[in-house]
Amino acid sequence: MNDVLKLEGVTKSFGAYKALDDVSVDFRQGEVHGILGVNGSGKSTLLKCVAGYYVPDSGKASVSGIELPWGSPEAAAKLGIRFIHQDLGLVGEMSVIDNLALGTRYEGRAWVSDRRERRRALQLLQQVGIDVDPSAPVWRLTKTEKTMLAVARAMRNGFSEKDVLLLDEPTASLSSGEVRVLFELLRSLSRRGVAIGFVSHRLREVLEICDRVSVLRNGRCVASRSTEGLSERELIDLLVGAPLSEVYGSNSEPVASPRVLLEARGLRGGALHELDLTLHEGEVLGIAGLDGSGRELVSRLLVGADAWESGSIVLNGKTFERLHPDITVQNKVAYVPADRKSQSLLPGFSLRENLTLAKIGTRRKGWLSLRDERRDSAHWLDRVHVDQRNVELPISLLSGGNQQRVVIARWLRFGARVMVLDEPTQGVDVAGRSAIYDSLADASRAGTGLIIVSTDSEELVSVCDRVLVLFDGRVALDLDRDALLAGGTAVLDRAILSGVPEAEGVTGEY
Amino acid sequence: MSIDEGVDGVPATVQDSADESTARGRKGYRDAVRWGAEKLELHRFSGLYILGLFILIFALWIPDTFLHVSTLRNIVTSQSITGVLAVGLVCAMAAGAFDLSFAQAAGTGSILAAILTTSFHMNVVLTVVIVIAYGAVVGLVNSLLVNWIGLSSIVTTLGTSSVLLAIDEKLTNENYIAGIPRSFVTAINGTILGIPEVFVIMVAVVLLGWYLLVHTPQGRRMYATGHASEAARLAGVRTSRSILYGFLASGLAAGVAGVMLLAVVGTGDPTAGPSYLLPVFAALFLGSTQVHPGRFNVWGTVIGIFLLGVGVQGLQLAGYSEQWISDLFNGVALLLATGFAVRNGTLSLRR
Questions:
Q1: Could you say which of A114, B44, B194, B337 is the most buried, measured as most Cβ atoms within 10 Å of its Cβ?
Q2: What CATH class has B46-337?
Q3: Which domains, and CATH codes, for chain A?
């Protein structure tokens, strides 16, 4: 088979961080090629370089022998490279027909002919094999249908043997069954001669469908080989690197005192099928999982920001069938969302007002004294080491790390017994991170229970007493401190990818 | 020509030093201006200085008519109803509740008061209590529609406004209601120690609004709701309650203003309400560039009201008494003030 797209020695740095280091991969005609790697290994960066969104520092790319200029999405498209983003790039409010026509010149020039476009849309839909009403708005389609529609759109100019279809994590939000349907489609496209490359986390499915896999680790391509004779376990070894020390998956009691602060029983909602967890006093509980494992829903369900379908949460000995944030806050449960700008900060407001939001009030009853409030705010900024004397400064002028510490101070001042943190150090530099961890460690020492939802394995391993690993919407594993210490991020990454422990005699059920 | 040579053959070093000295001079001047602006707190109280300027201009231009107690009384009386309505609106808008119904609510309130005092011969106290209660009901209905049904506040209040107008027209058959008892008019449009009573009411409402918004936790929660509703909700603020209080304040203020309106006009005027809509909004947005820029606030709004009031009254006394002149004045003042504030970055009204 001939190479269609050939990448040689691609290197890309962001500042001091090398996202891609001398990566060479080739995509062949009629072949499905999986690109695998844990979070931050550079796989998406690689696709974005090919698609022209990033310009690599060095390296070459060619399509059927013709050199591909970097940094030009138009040139890539012209050479037959089709690209599907993780978010699919569909417009939910518009119909299937309109989405298929989006970005091309409308057919019929001066007169947009509905009938002709409809005929063309039906033809395309038939080609990818989905049976949907072409005039239905896209938001009404299922996730699989949307993904397939995106494929149909990418291939709307017909298939040719020189085409390359690249997909960036098309399976992230799909269930296993849905993934299979999509893979069928990719298979049939590849049989027609299209070269397909895609990024995925789904090891089992990848092994089933792909002819070849390339594994990226820390920006380097550590393997590019046929899937023939490759086992899931070998694949994990390639992804994670370090050999596995067989010590994890124990069910020992946490060291923290046994008092239970929060309990989730059979919580179900969206991609999260069943969540059971127990948080003890002073415990730091991590939640890990791939995108689509239900991880991203955990924090919002626990604090009642979104409604859940079934199950319950126990707070202070009371069982709740549903929750709203004001009730959780009354029960001393704090929420630190990942999206600071729109979900936790009052952007145009002062440090003081942001800090006191959860518990507004001063010593004097019936009179909110701004002078008292200022003094109190300065005191709490000091506690979390935000070096800013002027409490009237708009919070939007602070760095991300300092903003996050103000949010944490808000809840420390409030006296939260439980803090649920979603990606607490996202977009925070290294110095800011350690300051945030210090503040959190102080809180935990004072008995506050912390739940940290994170995609950063290093963060979870270094701060958590226990990490729950979600897989396919369920808690697949409960890694305690000993397991984390012994195995480090390798153990956690393995568990995140496969959802099962590898040591003999330990089942995946929790 | 290379850059090192300087321009026009002047050696680069000489030119540099010349540039430097003029730059220093300009910088010194700019610093002085900035220092002055800071001392005068121009970014917060520019409206007050412009108000002073207006008074100075009119005092020099038409000293005989402008510098008279009756002028002051006129301005104060005519702006009191605007002031009461504006304080209510500040509360609603602070909580993110866009209220378009307050003006018609006040108009219908004054018709209600007129009917209660004429047809039902009710005494002053009972009339006032009923009309204020009516205002509270208007606020409650607005907040129910917004909170429970989830309608946008603009659509809701546009709807309720039209319903209130219909009630107004049905009650009056679009005629004036005359024969308001003197006892009612004097009880509300009288003077206390020479100060117009309506002005005293306005001052009381202003103080109350300021206290509630700035010096109670609930007021802060209302501002948080209006500013970043989702962030406030996730921090435990009951945002629906903030919206309820906002509409309630606006409705109560409309009730109070309705009573004042009847007493000031002296007859039940079925078309009086809507004329307050634009001036109150103008004062509100003008006010959001003052005292606490970027936030709807009570004292800023009071500055806005008197700025507009003095300007319009002065122009009228100077002989420019047509309605279009005062409307033009209101509109231009609003656009200038908010335009400057948005350009300065002290205000964001782009949302």
A1: B337
A2: mainly alpha
A3: 3-240 (3.40.50.300), 251-332+416-429+440-504 (3.40.50.300), 343-413 (no CATH)
